[in-house]
Design goal:
Elements: E1 2-5, E2 9-17, H1 22-41, H2 45-59, E3 67-75, E4 80-86, E5 91-94, E6 101-103, E7 122-126, E8 132-136, H3 138-141, H4 152-163, H5 168-182, E9 193-197
Antiparallel strand pairs: 1-2, 2-3, 3-4, 4-7, 5-6, 5-8, 8-9
Helix pairs in contact: 1-2, 4-5
């Protein structure tokens, strides 16, 4: 999801809820609504994660669901990005022809423990022109080939590096095509892939 904040900021968000089916879809919708409300309010991302963790633990108490997410808030003028991840696969920043930089989650899965959010939950990153920011769910990493080997984060990182030399509008499909060619059979999980190029 991409959410603008006037002319100053732009937020990118990817969220993943445990399980499948109607229950997970309804929970994902509630979490997205809470997250969007928090993002629009402009509160610090670490506070947003703490609010979401309380929301999942208290308002959805007794459920078997939990969630992971990655969120990035970009300052359009200063070329700065604040990133926060909670139990989520690392985000990546890549330049064409370069190795992707990995942005690891500092907090744990939301909804499992009251103190899931790290005291230093966010990190700030300087961005350059032509940087491409890549957020995704584990539907990309947790796929298996015909030998039963998992693609994993390193496999996705390699596909991001390879496709970064393509024109930006072609990069997303390039990643998805490589994963589909590598994977044995149909997708076993939902896939979300959100990307942005800084100009």
């Amino acid at each position: 999801m991409v959410l603008p904040h006037g002319d100053e900021f732009l937020s990118l968000l990817v969220c993943d809820v445990s399980g499948h089916g109607i229950g997970s879809a309804l929970l994902a919708n509630r979490i997205y609504s809470e997250t969007i409300s928090s993002l629009r309010s402009g509160i610090p991302l670490a506070d947003m994660l703490r609010q979401l963790n309380r929301f999942v633990m208290q308002d959805i108490a007794g459920s078997v669901f939990f969630c992971t997410l990655a969120v990035a808030r970009l300052d359009r003028d200063a070329r700065r990005m604040i990133f926060a991840g909670a139990g989520h696969p690392p985000a990546m920043i890549v330049q064409p022809g370069e190795e992707p930089r990995m942005l690891e989650s500092r907090s744990g899965v939301l909804g499992l423990m009251p103190d899931a959010v790290d005291g230093e939950a966010t990190l700030e990153v300087d961005l350059r022109q032509r940087d491409r920011v890549v957020l995704y769910t584990d539907g990309l990493t947790d796929v298996f080939d015909s030998r039963g080997e998992i693609l994993g984060i390193e496999g996705v990182q390699e596909f991001v590096r390879e496709t970064a030399v393509l024109l930006f509008p072609e990069m997303k499909q390039g990643i998805l095509d490589r994963i589909a060619a590598w994977r044995e059979g149909p997708p076993g999980d939902d896939i979300s892939l959100v990307m942005l190029e800084l100009r």
